[in-house]
Design brief:
This protein is of the alpha/beta class. The chain folds into two domains: 3-217, HUPs (Rossmann fold), CATH 3.40.50.620; 306-491, no CATH class. Helices cover 48% and strands 6% of the residues. It contains 19 helices and eight strands. It has helices spanning 3-31, 44-58, 79-98, 116-123, 134-151, 169-178, 205-212, 222-232, 275-282, 288-301, 306-309, 343-360, 367-378, 386-390, 405-421, 425-430, 433-446, 458-470, 484-491; strands spanning 36-39, 67-72, 103-108, 158-160, 185-187, 195-197, 242-244, 248-250. The strands form two sheets. A six-stranded mixed beta sheet has the order 3-2-1-4-6-5, with helices on both faces. β7 (242-244) and β8 form a beta hairpin. The radius of gyration is 28 Å and the shape is elongated. It starts with a helix and ends with a helix. 35% of the residues are buried.
């Protein structure tokens, strides 16, 4: 078969696949009362779906039913990925307005209190792991859920996805299990009254790229997307090559560009190697080695063992939590549970993060996030506003007046209480300065609740950390625990 014949065959095949997909979309657009919500990530599969939805609308005379294209911005994507995504969202909306298509492009973002920066540095959440994957819910699921409820109060809609069955046997099996008999629709696990529609379900990676590369860049910059995948794949250019001969199509067997996955640049689920980040680094994208260096450093820094990195008290409630699973046969039963990253760990990581932003000259954190982080630190005894001091080099000019007036007053009173505590030799002997600082602000916030919160003595905290290090419960100390709240009550004659 000549190249010309190959080209004709490929073009014909693409037209056939496109017609099938467009017909599927049109059938449910007209015959199902529910609106379409297209999940757009900016990747190759969701980009193909956007093109197909546009093609469908262009074939309809005066389409009326609005189609929503929904993207989730986590605030943590790699710079080239985020740049591509922002340009694509803008061009899709502009294209829709220009051609009078009923499309609304929507970008959802996490609440500021739930961003990766605030959760890691402010709240003290440990890096996400396979056993504690808190990031997806806070960064993506919650903001998407909120928007879905606004758009579809009844919960009735059709989610148009770029999911494909050739992405793995387990995925293919799950798709088949969720298919509604006699239809193209799939059950939606999250929204009972919604359905999923997968117009490129049976497309191969080769067919997705062949289709995208045959489209105009007016809607999405496909050429840049191709380069992004190619570079991130860490492949030789020949492995991601395509042939231009009256059209573009992928060389048989050269699918290196289909294997890349993009996500948060700080993703700690990847562990040692983020292939996409490594591939982009080797392709010369600016400053990515600095991002990679910080991410690796932070992971190692927070993985030194509970006894060195985790707090003995719950950051939110300031109480002590215990292992209660497995019964007394479990050697950890009754041990103090490790909670979030210590304030000292967070301060050091935050300082290094600020240095990273200064070196790359790219915004990694917002002023609002910094204020939220500082407010969390204050509740754990950072009365000197360390986060604000660290960010002075970013020229943000944050100080105590960046905080609510009520919080400024609490800091003032906490400093007075701390000064009083430091005059008592017994208190200084038994309690660390960090514990006294934390107690001072908690006492100021609500002194009566301090009696139920956990302020361990130096010896008690040492005992707990020794248990963590040995991974087993040790005999309880015989020395009677000192109650800081009671000592302060006597000291202040209250």
């Amino acid at each position: 078969m000549t190249i010309s014949q190959q080209t004709q065959f490929i073009v014909g095949m693409l037209q056939y696949y496109e017609t099938q997909a467009v017909d599927m979309l049109m059938n449910y657009y007209f015959n199902d009362s529910r609106s379409f919500c297209v999940a757009y990530s900016g990747g190759k599969d969701s980009s193909a779906v956007v093109y197909l939805v546009i093609k469908m609308l262009q074939q309809i005379k005066n389409p009326k039913k609005t189609i929503y294209i929904l993207n989730s911005n986590t605030f943590a994507e790699l710079p080239p990925v985020l740049e591509h995504l922002q340009k694509s969202l803008k061009s899709i909306q502009e294209f829709s307005v220009k051609h009078k298509l009923p499309i609304e492009v929507i970008e959802v973002v996490p609440e500021m209190k739930n961003t990766l920066n605030v959760q890691l540095f402010g709240v003290g959440m440990p890096p996400p792991s396979q056993t504690l994957r808190w990031c997806t819910d806070k960064l993506k699921v919650q903001p998407i859920d909120k928007k879905i409820k606004e758009l579809f109060p009844s919960g009735e809609f059709i989610s148009v996805l770029g999911t494909r069955s050739d992405e793995g046997y387990k995925r293919q099996e799950r798709i088949e299990q969720r298919t509604v008999k006699g239809t193209d629709l799939k059950l939606n696990d999250r929204y009972p009254k919604a359905s999923n529609l997968m117009p490129i379900e049976n497309w191969s990676t080769k067919e997705v790229w062949s289709y995208l590369l045959s489209q105009t860049n007016e809607l999405i910059d496909v050429d840049f997307l191709w380069k992004l995948y190619s570079d991130a794949s860490d492949k030789n250019a020949s492995e991601c090559s395509f042939v231009g001969a009256g059209g573009k199509y992928i060389d048989e067997g050269k699918l290196g560009c289909g294997t890349s996955r993009f996500g948060c640049w700080q993703c700690y689920l990847v562990r040692d190697k983020d292939k996409s980040l490594d591939g982009l680094m080797q392709s010369g994208y600016k400053d990515l080695e600095l991002y990679n260096g910080y991410r690796d450093w932070f992971w190692q820094f927070t993985q030194q063992g509970w006894e060195k990195t985790r707090d003995v008290y719950n950051h939110r409630t300031q109480v002590r939590d215990f292992y209660d699973k497995g019964g007394e046969d479990n050697i950890k039963y009754g041990m103090t549970m490790p909670k979030g990253l210590t304030l000292d760990i967070r301060k050091k990581a935050f300082k290094k993060f600020v240095e990273l932003q200064k070196n790359i000259e790219e915004p990694l954190i917002t002023q609002e996030e910094i204020i939220l982080i500082q407010q969390r630190w204050i509740l754990e005894g950072d009365l000197n506003l360390t986060a604000f001091k660290y960010t002075k080099e970013l020229e943000l000019n944050l100080n105590s007046f960046s905080l609510p007036k009520e919080m400024r007053e609490k800091i003032r009173l906490a400093k007075e209480i701390l000064k009083l505590l430091k005059t008592d030799s017994d208190i200084k002997k038994y309690y660390s300065l960090n514990t006294l600082k934390r107690f001072s602000i908690q006492y100021t916030a609500n002194k009566n609740k301090c009696a139920t919160k956990f302020f361990p003595t130096k010896e008690e905290e040492k005992h707990i950390r020794t248990e963590w290090e040995k991974a087993q419960k040790l005999e309880q100390r015989t020395q009677e625990d000192l109650d800081l709240y009671s000592l302060v009550q006597g000291l202040t004659n209250e």
